[in-house]
Structures are given as structure tokens and as C-alpha cells.
Give the backbone structure.
Amino acid sequence: MILPMERHIARVLIHRDAIARRVCELADQIADDFGRHGDEAGVAPPLPARPDITIVPILTGSIVFLADLIRQLPLMARLRFLTIESYPGKSTTSRGPIIDGELPADLAGASVLIVDDVLDSGRTLQLAQQKILERQPAQMRTCVMLRKDVPTAAKPAVDYIGFDIPDEFVVGYGLDYDGYYRNLPDVVTLRSEVFA
Ligand code: IMP
Ligand code: MG
């Protein structure tokens, strides 16, 4: 018998409504920073050479956040996915990030926004930023939905943070345990029996 996922939840940490509100705020901030090419005087300014942004989501955890965020962004945006794995199978601690596949090739001169689900040890984002900088983008900013309170973490520069959370293993809203729970709409902790 397949039990409904809801029975596996210990605690709802961030409710879907709070997430939705925060996603709108983040999108506004990002749109302002990446140049909503203003019409303050009622006159459209000349278009800059490349008025677009290139969003680089880190797969797989960022997908739900990404889908919500991009639909609130009134910018010309393209997507270039990057897969970085660090939690193989039934693990709840990072084994160190590894890039799976190719780095997007066409990032030179681009305005890049990296999007990830959670900043934990910080090593995933550090690796992503280092590799993307090698492609010489015009600018690079980073957005994470969650930042864990991990004192020992590497501190990659992060420009946009959805929520600060305690150092607990969480799932839902894109985050998984052993590949599951990504489709839970809230960010939750799991009952200890799930890990047994
Ligand atoms: P870091 O390299 O330790 O910062 O880990 C970041 C990556 O590990 C994230 O992109 C997530 O995919 C995964 N991760 C970190 N913490 C959690 C968690 O609490 N639940 C599920 N995945 C997590
Ligand atoms: Mg990830």
C-alpha cells in the first residue's frame, strides 16, 4: 500500500502561501536589479545591447522554485540548466558537489542569475559560481530559496535569499529525500521513521 506523503511530515516549516508571497518579492528585487528598463519619463529608453538575463538553475532541487520565480519575472529570460549532485541516494549530508554533464557554453557577456533551492554547506554554489565565472559573464548574481544556518559553511556571495532556516534536513517545494517529496507544496521536515 502506498501511504500518502502527508503522513511522513513531521512539521511544516514554510507554508506554500508564505513561499508564494516571498517569490513575488524576490522577483521584484531581481527585476529591479537586472534593469527593468524604466519608463519614468514616459519615454521608452533605448534598448541596451543585451537586455536579457540568463537564468542558470541548479538541477534538480531548484525546479519548483524556478517555475514559480520565472513566471513573476517581467524580463527577457532564457534558461541554461546545470546539474550538480551532492546527496547520493538516502543521504542527508553532502558528499561534496559534482557537476554532471556539460557547463552551458554560451555565457560569455551574459547577465547570469544562478538559482538554487538551498544553501547548506555552500559548496554547490561555490562550484557553480567558479565554473560560470570561467565563462566570463558580464555579471553574475545568485538566488537561493533557503539558506540554512550552518556556521561552518563556505560563504559564496548570495544576492537573493527567500528564507533563512535552521540547520535541519528539509524536503518539499523541489527538495528531495532519496528522490522523493519534491512535489510537496510546503517546505517540511520528515518524521524520523522515514529515515529508519
Ligand atoms: P551544499 O553544497 O551543501 O550547499 O548543498 C546544496 C545542495 O544540497 C542543494 O542544492 C540541495 O540539492 C541539497 N540539499 C542541501 N540541504 C538539503 C536538505 O535539507 N534537503 C534536501 N536537499 C538538500
Ligand atoms: Mg541541489
User: Anything to note?
Assistant: The chain has one domain: 19-32+50-195. Helices lie at 16-33, 63-70, 123-134. Residues 19-32+50-195 form a domain with the Rossmann fold fold (CATH 3.40.50.2020). The mean pLDDT is 90.
